[in-house]
Design goal:
60s Ribosomal Protein L30, Chain: A; alpha+beta; RidA_CS; RutC-like_sf; YoaB-like; Endoribonuclease
Length: 115
């Protein structure tokens, strides 16, 4: 059975199937924040969704990070390194991409195991 969370007409924020949670791309709400602030907002949104699964960041299998500008790589990593659990770092890719909203500096997609 597929479980869907925060389902709208276009997408769900998260789906779960066979013990794996697939999160939609998470973006910041406050676009006036710098890259560290926007990253912290996105990571909090990920924590909130994972809690619904229920799982947590220790069970993230893969993270895909989209940055509007690679000049923000160091700032993003500053927030990421504080958040990611030592010894439970997921597979990760970071790329530069033109995001749907020009005010967004970051979007993160994660896939996590649901124990």
């Amino acid at each position: 059975m597929i479980e869907r969370f925060d389902t709208g007409p276009r997408m769900s924020e998260m789906t779960i199937y066979h013990g794996v949670a697939y999160l939609a791309g998470q973006v910041p709400e406050d676009t006036s924040a710098d890259i560290v602030g926007q990253t912290e907002q996105v990571l909090q949104a990920i924590d909130d969704l994972l809690r619904l699964a229920p799982t947590d960041k220790r069970h993230i299998l893969r993270a895909e990070i989209f940055l509007a500008d690679m000049a923000d790589f160091a700032g993003m990593n500053q927030a990421w390194d504080k958040w990611v659990p030592e010894g439970a770092t997921p597979a990760r890719a970071t790329v530069q991409a033109k995001l749907a909203n020009p005010a967004w500096k970051i979007e993160i997609v994660v896939t996590a195991a649901v124990p």
